[in-house]
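Lab manual, section 2.4: Encoding a predicted structure.

Procedure: take the sequence of the chain (461 residues), apply the prediction step described in section 2.3, and record the output as structure tokens. A sample record is shown.
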Amino acid sequence: MRFAPDHMNGDAGSPYVLYPWQLETLVNEALVLPHIPDRRGRILVTENFSTIHALTKLIQRIEEADDRRFLENNHVLYEVHRLSQRQFEWQRGFTNQPRFYRAVQLFGQGQVGAYFAEQVGCSVPEFIEAAFYIFCGSCNSASGTWSNYGDVGGVSAALIETVLDRISLGPANARAMAKELRGYDEHIGYKPSVLRRHPILRFGMPDVDAIAPLPPLILQRATSGLFFDIVGGEGAIWDEVGSRFEQYCSRYLAAMLDDYDVGSEYRYGTKKRRFDTPDILVSKGETVRLVVECKAKRMPITARFSGDPVSSAASAYEEIAKGVFQVWRYFSHARRGLLPRPAAEDCLGMVLTADPWLIMAQKLHPEVMAIANRIADEKDPDIIATDRPRVPVVLIDELEYLLQNATAETLLARLAMLSNDTSGWEWSLVHGLDDKVSRPYPFSGELRELLPKIYGTPFRR
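Recorded output:
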């Protein structure tokens, strides 16, 4: 690509910085719009950065017009939530050891892994390793010719072709999917993206060339995007995903919370009425200091980008509210002396999620809490107001980052601050973190066994 000298400043805030979320919208809109040849024979010179810059600025102007229309009828804080959902994942990034490890643990084991292999034709670790190869190739070249590669770095050509077929689309199918996903009147920046399921676009004759408009989305597809390959599974598949998410969270906390005991849920109560504690109990000595309810439920597009997400995805948000209720019930039973093990007077609660449900969702927080209160009123009226403190809803990515850059006491201190914050903001646990503590990811050794083509030996092109 050709750059003018004044385009070379890539610092944040520069007028020539292009944000990946806007480029993603640009690609999708290019697929939707009809291609009409210019009557004077002119063509779009996409080798010039100035061309892409001009097109992206046009996308920005359309987004601003859609913002204006939305804000005429909605509170600006609903828009803050949508902006956060769109931008934060790009800023967090799609590639790190926890994301790879969690993908294998959640989607690559047991009946979930067997279902995935049946649908795709390879195992989850094989899928990730082949996708990583494709990602590296896409970063090294704007486009690739995929018909003449051999075995690379131990990843076979046949496996690469299997994964490439799964995550790529030819021109006609890409356009058809874009029209199906985006053919409705809504904010241009918040419509579903073809690139989330198919980050590779194939073209040429006979369909042998390929391009990844945004290569990081290949790794997003090979981690959290594995959801697309098991979405058709029955309830037992999703129950196992939820169970494996609980197991991962418990193992991770046990490995990272020095001087604390991390235990699993247990049943208690009378013969006539039994209860389950929250999924994870963090204790010091005999006293429980933190209870954690885990929710692996996928965040639907209506919850992520709707202008009225709680109404649009009520059943999805109710699952998060149930997590809050389960923490409240535990606090209430502790107060009433119904637990076989004591809980600290300042015991904290947390709902730990696989998706960013309430980050920067100040307007949504009271709506979800209202659902939790309704559930509590219906199921146990003896849960009084003091049993119902604010329960932070925390994204697993943020918990991992915090504990790899801070101590257990920092986590508890920040959870306590957030629990006592009455503003309704689900602010990030890692905001303003000093990053002075560096702790290794506890499952790095297992990754060398699970993904040897990536972590076991140096990757060769």
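Check your result against the sample. The chain has a mean pLDDT of 90.
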